[in-house]
Structures are given as C-alpha cells and as structure tokens.
Fold this protein.
Amino acid sequence: MSTLSTAWPQRLAEAAAERRGQGLWRERRTRGTDLVDFAGNDYLGLANDPRLAEAQAKGARRFGTGAAASHLVNGHLEVHDVLERRLAELVGRPRALLFSTGYMANLGTLQALCDEATHVFQDRLNHASLLDGAKLSGARSRRFHHRDHDDLERLLARTPAEAAKLVVSDGVFSMDGDVANISALADLSARHGAWLMIDDAHGLGVLGAHGDGCVGRAHDVERVPILVGTLGKALGTGGAFVAGSEALIEHLIQFARPYVYTTAQPPGVAAATLAALDILASEPERRERLRDAIDYFRHEAALLGLPLADSFTPIQPLMLADTGRVMRWAVELHEAGLAVGAIRPPTVPCGEARLRITLCAKHGREALDRLLENLSRLQGEEAG
Ligand SMILES: *Cc1c(COP(=O)(O)O)cnc(C)c1O
C-alpha cells in the first residue's frame, strides 16, 4: 500500500489491481436456496426453525422492530435483560452482557480492558476481531504459535511480573476447527498472573455437556474470567455476549465503546435467541445428529484419502493448499448444488488455502454422500 498514489480514484484502482493480481479478489454471491449448505455456521439447523421465526415476530410486535436507542439511553428492554440472564446461566457465569455482533464484543472487551501498558498474547490463528480489538486498545500485542503452550510460556516469562497480562484465544478455531486446550491455557495464565479470554463463537451450542461450549460450566469464571459467545452461529440468530464476573460486566458497560455507542439489538432477535436457548435445552438430539454427521463424514473422507484437517468439530477443512485449486473445486461443487466456503489468504496464511466444509445437524446421509461423491470425483479428475 505504501507505493499507492495520493489521488483517491487511482488509489482504489491500484489496490484492486494488486488484489486481482494475487488471485485474491473476493465476490459475494447471493445465496441460492437450491444449494445444500456446507458453508454456513448454522450447526444445529436453528436459523430456519419456524419457532424462532415466530418468537422473533412476536418479539417485534410486543417490543418494536428496533430497540430505538442504545442500552444506556433507553434501548435496554426486558427481553434483553432476560436473555442476558439466560446466557449467563448457560455458561455458568455470574453475568453476561449482550453485544450487537461478535466482532463488536471482541473490539469492545479488548478496548475496555487494555491500554498501552497491557501485554496481550494471542494465538496466531485467532479471529480477526480479536487482533483488531488489541490494536484498537493500543496494547502491546504478541502472537504465539498456534496452540503452542511452550511458545506462550516463553513470551509470558519475558514480560515483567507486575505488568497487566491478557491471554486471548479462540475456543474452536474458525478456519481450522481444532479446539484450544482450555485447561492448559488456564494453568499457564494463572501461573503468570494473566487473565484468560476465550472466544467460543463456534463452540457455543455445539460442544459441552449442555451445548455450553468448550469453556462453559466445565471451566469456572476464576479460571476463564472472560468468555465471549456469539449468537449468529449455532444459535441461529445474531449478536453476541461477553460473560464473566459482576465487576467485568460493569466495567464493560462503563468503558466498552462498541457497547455504549450503538443501538441495542432488535428485541425480536433477542426473543428468537431465547427460543433457541429453549430448543438447545430441550432437544439434545440435535447435537447427537451433528456428532453423527461429523463422524460419518470423517470416516468416509478418510477412506477416500481426502486431505481433511484434524478436527472433531463441525468445521471440516479440506486442505487443498493452492488458491486456484480451491476456487476450481468450489465452483465445481457449486455447479453440483453444494455450497462450501473457499478460504484464501489473507483469511488464512499463504499456502494454506482450503475448502471450509461445515456440517449441520440437518445433514442426512444423502446430503453427505452427495458431497463425498463430488469430492471424490474432483480428486479423481485431478489425479487422472
Ligand atoms: C464469527 C466470529 C466472530 C464474529 O462474530 P459475529 O457475530 O459474526 O460478528 C468472532 N469470533 C470468532 C472466532 C468468530 O468465528
């Protein structure tokens, strides 16, 4: 970017040319309803559940389609309050605070907690919003090798003992599907007097005995003081929350600018999320069906010799490495009626382009077999 000219139209043209030249130009396509979805994050199949839609409509009729104000002015409605209590209960924390999106929850939390004197330690593969939040806060940020606790320990040991330290990690890594070792991170953080923040966007609703995620009730608030969950993935709605101690939540209400200066979540969305939480509790078979789909897909893919990453979550990356190859396969699959994510740099490191295949409780054998057959065909065509 440093070589860009100062004239705006020319700057844009140069940036576009650079990105196209790298084969990284991105295009949106409107989602076809005729495709089998192996690209989304609706792991429990709740996003199209009529009960959620009904709850959303009822919530809108009762409270309005919009919240009309920020939480601190007068946009904080009873339905938000009830939802915060239910979310705190789900993950076994004293309190939870709703945010409009997960991106904002991460920005707000890091910005409110950290400043230039804070040392933040991030897994190299953390979500962009966590990296951006640390940047926004002005904290001194360092990245440790992915799930490498020795590397993290080395960085922590080099930091002055009295400095404020925050270790930050995805729970389930969004592009890889592997899971952070929460116990090891909690031990290490405690040993170095650091707080631990886990973003469990992809674990919530899917992992844990109650769908409470990879942290949830299994790791208490002393061990994992800051827990972020998002509602637009397994819970099928939208928004996010931060869960933790009374003091943490009050601090965020006072200081998290992406919380303070934005309109509260539409009340119908909060009402739909409450319906999703009811279903999460009353229909554990959804998690079992998802588990079955994952086991079946991995078993069959292994027989076909497909280069799947080592993941036991619904995120099943097929490591094709080459960007052109990823795009070709994605287009072919699309033509066969199957939507998968084509993930390229800069979302993942160079040389690690992949198809991001996501599984859902609604995927039956037929859909899975269709995907497997097409992947097998593409692999065969390349070999032949
Ligand atoms: C999706 C995601 C987010 C962002 O959540 P949104 O609600 O979509 O803004 C944050 N962190 C991780 C790990 C995610 O996968």
Observations:
- The mean pLDDT is 96.
- The chain is about 45% helix and 15% strand.
